TrEMBL record:
Coiled-coil positions: none
This protein's UniProt keywords: Amino-acid biosynthesis, Aromatic amino acid biosynthesis, Isomerase
One BP annotation, GO: aromatic amino acid family biosynthetic process
EC number: 5.4.99.5
Name of the protein in question: chorismate mutase
GO terms for cellular component: cytoplasm
First and last residue of the signal peptide: none
Amino acid sequence: MGRERAEALSPYQSKPMVSRPLFYTFSFLSFSCLCSCKQLQEMASQFNLESVREFLTREEDSIVFSLIERAKYPSNLPAYDPSYSTGGALRNYSLLDLFARETEAVQARAGRYRNPEEIPFFPKVLVLPLVPAVHSQVLHPASASVNASNAIWKMYFNRLPQFTAKGDDGRYALTAAADLVCLQALSRRINYGRFVAEAKFRDAPKDYTSAIRAEVDLSDSPFFSFPSYFLMFLQDRDALMRLLTSAAQEETVKSRVKKKAKVFGQDVTVNNISKNESSRPKYKVDPDVVVHLYGDWVIPLTKLVEVEYLLHRLD
Ligand SMILES: C=C(O[C@@H]1C=C(C(=O)O)C=C[C@H]1O)C(=O)O
């Protein structure tokens, strides 16, 4: 058992290495996780759409900062090329894949994924957490595990060229670390769509229940036939999507992230003396790229998570 656990933690390490500093670190993390469990339970009593939106607003800071941090390095493509890393049994994995798996395994042991707000990208890596389980006080159990992690991973790599310069400076480990911070921040935000959906459901249970039930009832309908069922299935998803969408809120979010990208991403100079006075302000990540990332990906994926959550809300 001990060996299995050590292998799950690190496939290259045959013996578990438990040093005294590591023991103290885990003890501290276990303690802080117990404290945060208490906080999670307290949060459940103040749960509403407003508190959910506050959470999403705060996550914008993490996302914008993490993109700025990743933009410090050029594209560094070998970090994503499985032929670069010598992964042994995991040779089909890129350096980033390996880094993400191993980091998540350590974080899983410290209890990161005991927190219902967090979902790993590599859930199949079996790791026994060192802290007790937390049962979500908020999410509906049948839909609590809905997530868009695969789509988030793909989306991130499609967008990468827009906020990194082409090039290779050899700092692949730092690049992978910066990537994982971005991916985890995006995942937390987008998969938080489950909490948004729960808050909306509690605010208008009748409206949501009839939209959800419309989909369930159709499969039992005597008029059921595959093409019409399929069409209506899409329409019902559409109805849910319409119900949960707030165009005004989306515009607010996009304007705010643009402002954050400008404020966080500008060079700070003393006495307002800039090296190139005449040029337009230069940002570390183009604010319009952040707006498009939100408008084309982050918001639509959050809404897909919301719809998916609601479809299982009455299970
Ligand atoms: C998250 C919400 O649901 C939807 C998604 C939004 C987003 O991802 O920012 C914003 C408004 C809604 O269309 C919300 O209402 O706050």
